[in-house]
């Protein structure tokens, strides 16, 4: 019998993605489930691959922010049942290695041989196909699938359960001030979580007007880095340096006139704007090899940094992928309780067939494209999203 097929968004090469028919995933292990994807988000991290700025090979199905309904279940799965609505961390983790045991699920050593960390649909992150597709296989499902209330309520909030990390790894404590660089979904989520956690002042730095407006709407102070030096603007408003800073931009940061990439500019700004003994959280992505880097050193992931200044100020820093599993249960409950509504970052809600256009527009940050969610099996609205915040 021919294998069943489904539609999935595949990477074909720089700036090229296409919806193709591929083999529908099957259970490969008793601990697996197959999820019918109701919602999958496009992430800024997908754009690094989309632009050909990673070692990603054609054929990969993107999509690491996924949720849906349990369609098939292996006999080893005990905590879930068919028909459950679930959301998955973007990390794939086994729940049993030393790092998982300590809550560091982004660095699981059991799912991607020779590497600490696995993810769906991402270069170097293991053999797991992405969820910008009608179905997705989830390994170690009892550990990796978090059960949600049935129905469709809060669908767009639950898909965004990954934003807490940048603030956490900066060492943030309530009452402190914080500067978040980048007002993409990651930056806006970091800013929002700082507000939920009782920050005094939250500064959000970007140049895209719609994104700065979104930051203002949730109570942050927007800083446009093209107007004048971002650090000077923050210190002037704050009266002193801030306690914490977050890099939600990563290695494709641009210089103040927006004309060229400057991979160290955000890190340098953070070293300048953070008070002595403060902390820097760096969820923004840096890669060990970048085929499109502006210079030879950064092509090998060597970013020059004022390390002397960092030392002098006794700054601490945290970095790496988000240990989603360490937070998502609590964030789920804050959403259910009506205390958090992260869907305010979503700008567009589309069908899988619209994904090719959406990648292009999101990549250019055009037409207010901030965060796109895809419904690969239809059934929801399409078009501009209105979170009503
Ligand atoms: N650590 C993790 O687990 C994790 C998870 C998701 C995303 N990421 C990474 O986080 C970063 C942000 O993701 P996103 O989805 O929000 O991406 P995004 O590309 O939508 O947002 C980045 C924003 O940074 C702004 N920017 C560029 N240069 C800047 C500068 N010099 N100063 C201030 N802002 C500047 C851009 O205008 C853009 O709005 C990416 O590098 C992504 O790969 C990390
Ligand atoms: Zn593990």
UniProtKB/TrEMBL annotation:
Which terms does the record give in the GO molecular function aspect?
A: oxidoreductase activity; zinc ion binding
What Pfam family does this protein match (any one)?
ADH_zinc_N
**Domain Alcohol dehydrogenase-like N-terminal per the UniProt entry, residue ranges:** 30-142
Q: Which residues form the signal peptide?
A: none
Assigned keywords, A-Z: Metal-binding, NAD, Oxidoreductase, Zinc
Q: So which cofactors does this thing need?
A: Zn(2+)
- SUPFAM superfamilies under this entry? GroES-like, NAD(P)-binding Rossmann-fold domains
Alcohol dehydrogenase-like C-terminal domain mapped to chain residues = 185-253
Annotated family: Belongs to the zinc-containing alcohol dehydrogenase family.
Query: What's the protein here called?
Result: Glutathione-independent formaldehyde dehydrogenase
Taxon lineage: Eukaryota, Fungi, Dikarya, Ascomycota, Pezizomycotina
